[in-house]
Each structure stands twice: as C-alpha cells, then as structure tokens.
Amino acid sequence: MLNKIIANATCLVRNVVPLTLRILIGWQFFLTGKGKLAHIDKTTGFFSKLHIPMPEFHAYFIGTLETVGGLLLIAGLLTRLVSLPLLGTLVVAYLTAHREDAFSSVEDFITATPFPYLAVVLFLIAYGPGRLSVDRWLTPLFDKLGIGVEACASDARTCKYTRGDHPRKTDA
C-alpha cells in the first residue's frame, strides 16, 4: 500500500515539475523578450556596449526568440528544439553581460541572473517537457513524420496509474 502511494506521488511529481518549470521560466523569457522589443533602442544600446555584433539585429532577434520561445515553453511545444537557441542566448549572456562577476567563483556563477534560466533550459533539454505538454500529445504525429521529438524522459513513460481512465505505457 505504501509503495503504491509513493509510486503514484513520484509519478505525479514527474508530471508536475516539468510543467511548473516550463511555466515559470517560459513566462520570464516571454516578459524579458517583450521588454527587449518594447524598448528596442535601449536593448540595442546595451548590446552595443557589450560589443555584440549587429546590435540592432540581435536585439530584435533575441527579443523575438525570448518572446516566442517563452510561449512555446509554456505550452510545451517544440520544447527541446526551442531550448537550444535559448541556451545559446544564456551562454552569450554569461560571456558578455555577466563576464565580470559570474566567473570569480562557483557561488558567483550560480547567483548570476541567468543561472535559473540556464538550469531549467538544461533540465528541459535533458528530460523533455513531461507528459503535461503539447509535445506529448503530438509525439505520435512527430513519430509518423520521422521527427525525433521525445516528449518525456524514458522513465517518465513508465508511470503506472491506479485509475483506469489514464493511459498505461511501459517499455517492455
């Protein structure tokens, strides 16, 4: 009985954690991207000060990527695919805007502004968006088209439910 309760709780956590992380970080990406686009002159000036080439182009590109990418993360649509360019923007942020203060120590690195975004994006790349995502529902279509989009980590696909109305899939 206790094992069944623990198994169901673990399965619930595996489903809720990726959803929660996607919503929180996706919303933050959306807001920061929207802010960049709303104040494109300030963003372009900031990118110029950081010596980012073609600052106006990159201001529009990054603002759009963060806005659209944030919405895609919230929905769990093309999660791993959109996480890769978002990861790139975070690496560039560390190497430009945070280069002076983020590389002195591990503590400085993990307390820098991009770190929570970086941690979540890496999690989503590694484990996928979870079952509560559009990717999960589109997986059969992606499989038919030969697109390798796996919505869940392999161990999340083995969750067993006690109620009969939930699908049961095992990797046997």
Describe it.
It is a single chain. This protein has 172 residues and is mainly α. It has one domain. It has seven helices and no strands. It has helices at 2-38, 40-49, 55-75, 79-95, 106-111, 115-127, 134-145. It is globular.
- Number of beta strands: 0
Distance between the termini: 24 Å
How would a crystallographer describe the biggest sheet? none
Shape: globular
Query: What's the Cα radius of gyration?
Result: 19 Å
Order of helices and strands: HHHHHHH
Please indicate the count of domains: 1
Fraction of residues in β-strands: under 5%
Q: Which stretches are low in confidence, meaning pLDDT under 50 for 5 or more residues running? A: 151-158, 160-168
**Helix proportion range:** 55-70%
Structural class per helix/strand content?
mainly alpha
Count of DSSP-assigned helices: 7
